């Protein structure tokens, strides 16, 4: 509960759901139409085509009326059989949850990663994947599953390097990538990186409310799905692919969220994906300038893989990050991401994705700085000043320049 009567806008600076732009809210407010009528098919075909552009694929992208977790399940259920070994890499809390899901579905996940807390502070080590696949000479491992942007830590992973590692061994496993929080904020290339199934969601870079999620498919993934043994019905790709040919779904799709998706895709493609990525990189750099000026640690320890989507801010020893976060929420109506899993209470996460601008981020950083001071944390300097300097000195690339 807030310490004051709410006025003005709430600051939703968690790393998803991200703020939904008015343009998308308006698009979603149109009347729901007949999902089997002629108008709908045209909408379906248009938005599926634009969706492929954002995933950078020529192949099909399935859209589910489900959260990202549903699309995780769809990826596994469509391609694997009971007892299959899957190699999963521990980058953080979401990788851990996906691994738990694999176990619940009757798969045999092997969970590898750097030891101790280091794994949650670095990206996927492709050489570890390569070494494990090299040992697997009888090809018991059927899929390699990695998270592109680990939302619990603010660390990205080099997906092209994972593909290179698999190719170096000539291993036939499928490559599955969760870019639920990466897509449309961080560069992502389904085809070029040789990904077989890409999983994503609506409520992050796509700037939509939660409720729809995606599987982008390679030809190989589709071929493998024809023989995969895990039970599936709602998630089954075959009927959806068939219906999608004419822009329809085999069941009732989330019509109004699809209006929103269509609008979001227009916004992203009008701006140009490279400009979208540059905008996120710049915000992330401004936020990191603030964290450095505060004298606090960033959860990600490898500057090569800093996330453009969010920054994990580690609290000094003995400080309860959740208490700080709660104070900031109550006093300033600003939501920050909590520490998840192993990082619970150790850090908070600042989302800088989607429909933000320099000033919303300045307000966010001001809320953080005031809240940390009120919590008695002694800061080395003003992060707000450092970020103001960064944003003022580093003008955004003008969209028409590129
Ligand atoms: N994977 C990642 C990287 C996520 O960030 C999330 C949600 O934040 C999920 C999976 C789970 O998605 P959802 O909460 O939409 O089911």
TrEMBL record:
UniProt keyword annotation of Transferase present: yes
InterPro entries: Aminotrans_V_dom, PyrdxlP-dep_Trfase, PyrdxlP-dep_Trfase_major, PyrdxlP-dep_Trfase_small, SP_NH2Trfase/AEP_transaminase
Key word Transferase present: yes
Gene3D superfamilies: Aspartate Aminotransferase, domain 1, Type I PLP-dependent aspartate aminotransferase-like (Major domain)
Binding residue positions for substrate: 349
GO biological process, one term: glycine biosynthetic process, by transamination of glyoxylate
SUPFAM superfamilies: PLP-dependent transferases
Residues modified as N6-(pyridoxal phosphate)lysine: 204
Similarity remark: Belongs to the class-V pyridoxal-phosphate-dependent aminotransferase family.
PANTHER family: ALANINE--GLYOXYLATE AMINOTRANSFERASE, AMINOTRANSFERASE CLASS V
Protein name, per record: Aminotransferase class V-fold PLP-dependent enzyme
Species, as recorded: Halomonas binhaiensis
Lineage of producing organism: Bacteria, Pseudomonadati, Pseudomonadota, Gammaproteobacteria, Oceanospirillales
């Amino acid at each position: 509960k807030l310490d004051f009567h709410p006025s003005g806008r709430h600051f939703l600076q968690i790393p998803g759901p991200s703020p939904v732009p008015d343009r998308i809210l308006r698009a979603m407010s149109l009347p729901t139409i007949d999902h089997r009528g002629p108008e709908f098919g045209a909408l379906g075909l248009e938005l599926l085509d634009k969706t492929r552009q954002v995933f950078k694929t020529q192949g099909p992208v399935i859209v589910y009326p489900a959260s990202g977790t549903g699309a995780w399940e769809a990826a596994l259920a469509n391609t694997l059989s009971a007892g299959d070994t899957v190699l999963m890499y521990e980058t953080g809390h979401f990788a851990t949850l996906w691994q738990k899901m694999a176990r619940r579905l009757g798969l045999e996940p092997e969970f590898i990663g750097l030891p101790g807390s280091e794994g949650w502070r670095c990206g996927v080590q492709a050489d570890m994947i390569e070494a494990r696949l090299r040992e697997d000479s009888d090809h018991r491992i059927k899929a390699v599953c990695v998270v592109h942007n680990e939302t619990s830590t603010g660390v990205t992973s080099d997906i092209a390097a994972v593909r290179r590692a698999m190719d170096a061994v000539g291993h036939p496993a499928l490559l599955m990538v969760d870019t639920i929080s990466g897509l449309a904020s961080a560069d992502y290339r389904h085809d070029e990186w040789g990904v077989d199934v890409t999983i994503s969601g609506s409520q992050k870079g796509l700037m939509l409310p939660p409720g729809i999620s995606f599987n982008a498919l390679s030809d190989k993934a589709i071929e493998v799905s024809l023989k995969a043994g895990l039970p599936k019905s709602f998630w089954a790709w075959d009927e959806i692919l068939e219906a999608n040919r004419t822009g329809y779904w085999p069941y009732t799709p989330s019509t109004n969220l699809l209006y929103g998706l269509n609008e979001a895709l227009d916004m992203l493609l009008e701006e140009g994906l490279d400009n979208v990525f540059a905008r996120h990189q710049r915000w992330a750099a401004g936020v990191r300038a603030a964290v450095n000026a505060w004298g606090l640690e960033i959860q990600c320890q490898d500057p090569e893989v800093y996330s453009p989507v969010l920054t994990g801010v580690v609290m000094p020893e003995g400080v309860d990050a959740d208490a700080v976060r709660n104070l900031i929420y109550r006093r300033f109506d600003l939501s920050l991401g909590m520490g998840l899993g192993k990082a619970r209470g150790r850090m908070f996460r600042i989302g800088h994705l989607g429909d933000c601008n320099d000033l919303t981020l300045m307000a966010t950083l001001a809320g953080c700085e005031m809240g940390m001071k009120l919590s008695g944390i002694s800061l080395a300097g003003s992060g707000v000043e450092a970020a103001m300097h960064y944003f003022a000195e580093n003008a955004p690339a003008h969209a028409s320049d590129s």
